[in-house]
Amino acid sequence: MRKASIFELIRTAELLNDKTIIHFLNSFTENVGISQILVLSQLREKGPQKQSQLANTLGYTPGAMTGISNKLIELGYAERKYDENDRRIILLKVTDKGLELLQEAQKQGQAVRENLYSVLSEEEIMQLLAIQRKLLNHILNIESESKER
Predict the structure, then answer these.
(1) Which residues have C-beta within 8 Å of that of residue 141, sequence separation ≥ 6?
(2) What's the pTM value of the predicted model, to 2 decimals?
């Protein structure tokens, strides 16, 4: 049995991810990228957050997070607000317009999912997701252990 190299594993995952994102963005007519959608989704799920917290959670640099936030604010999908307990802390918050955008992205994303993943059964999709999560958690644990040393 042939063993896949690490480079083949990385490249295949990268190509699949890139092609999936491109396919989604080509079908989504709004002027936002996947990063903006992921930030809005995080804000919807977890509530208002500091940009640094969002950057850390989503794996963006502080500079990239500033650009993402500025675009979301400029388009009216998010707003900055002061923390009620400490006015020095500025939080990013999703707006109603941002929530509407997320609904449309979810609707379009479902159509893309049905199109791209139609070659897999629901069981295979869940297995794929479980494998990806397992690998991601393992890598995160390795990173955490190496930081502790």
Answers:
(1) none
(2) 0.83
Quick: pLDDT tens for 91-135.
999 999 999 999 999 999 999 999 999 999 999 999 999 999 999
Q: Domain 6-118 falls in which CATH fold?
A: Arc Repressor Mutant, subunit A (1.10.10)
**Residues 20 and 61: beta-carbon distance below 8 Å:** no
Q: DSSP for the chain?
A: -PPPPHHHHHHHHHHHHHHHHHHHHHH--SS--HHHHHHHHHHHHH-SB-HHHHHHHHT--HHHHHHHHHHHHHTTSEEEEE-SS-TT-EEEEE-HHHHHHHHHHHHHHHHHHHHHTTTS-HHHHHHHHHHHHHHHHHHHHHHHHHHH-
Cα(14)–Cα(128) distance, integer angstroms: 15
CA dist 68 and 92 (Å) reads 11
